[in-house]
Structure formats: structure tokens, C-alpha cells
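Hi R.,

As promised, here are both runs. First protein below:
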Amino acid sequence: MFTIIAATLFSAAFLLAMGTIVWMFAHYHDKMVAALQFEPIPHNPPVYHLRIRRPRAAQPLRRTASALPGNALAA
């Protein structure tokens, strides 16, 4: 008797699961096909253009000894 009840419950659970699967395939068929055929937009990796700019300090002008003012020699 236990075997008959267990087999009946197992068969009922199996048929319920199969019915659910078939119902979901029938109901969501279009969405599943669309999801399988979906091609995402390819994203190119970002390209960074770096420009390192380090302005140099102005070089001081070198003055020679001959550039002394005229009144410095007169003293």
C-alpha cells in the first residue's frame, strides 16, 4: 500500500514539474529566443591620450665682466 501511495505522489510531482516546464516554455518562448539572439553593443576599451607638459624654468642670462656700467670704472 505504501508503494502505491509513494508512486502516486512521485508521479503527481513529476507531472506537475513537467507541466510547469512546458507552460514556461510556451509562455516565455519569445523572450528566451530574444535573449539567446541578443548581441550586446561592443565597448571599445578607453584610449587615454596623455600629454605630459612640464614647462621649463627660464634660463638666467649670463652677464660677462665687460657688461659693467661705465660709471663703475670711473670710481
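And here is the second one, sequence first, then its C-alpha cells:
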Amino acid sequence: MRYQFVELFGRCSCSGLNICSFCGRLTLAVLGILFGALIALNPKKTIEIQTAIYRPFNWKLEPISMKKELRNMRIMGLALILCGAASIVLLLVIK
């Protein structure tokens, strides 16, 4: 297990203010998992935030069926978590 931990940092080639592609991809995957968890755990708040973002553009966002919208948001959050986890696995497996 220790070897894999050392191998993880062996792939990093960051220097100074330059971020390597490995660390950038790893960061995006982790952020995807975090956003997916937030969407899956609190879909109603996500819909409220989306509505607030559209309001300045004078777009009215109103779900036809809130029950279906909440279910779909949870599914999208779980899909985002799975995609983020798959990205991390592929990033660590493929050299």
C-alpha cells in the first residue's frame, strides 16, 4: 500500500505556479465527486440555486413536477459521483 501512495506523488510534476496535467485532472475528478454529492444530497437547494442564476436573465425556471425533478437531480448527482470515481480510477491505473 505504501508503494501506491509513493507512486501517486511520483506522477506529479508540478513546479512553482505550474500545475501538471495529472494534478489538474485529479482535482477536477475530486470536484466532480463533491458537486455530485451536494446535488444528490440536497437536490431542492440545487434547483433553488439554478432558479436564482436564471432570474437575472429574465428566464423563469419552474419544474412541471417537483417530485420528478428531485428524483432526476438525485440521479444526476449519483451519475456525477460515479463519473468522478471512474475518472480517478482510470487516472491512477493508466500511466
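A quick note on the second one: DSSP finds four helices and no strands in the chain. Let me know what you think.

Best,
J.
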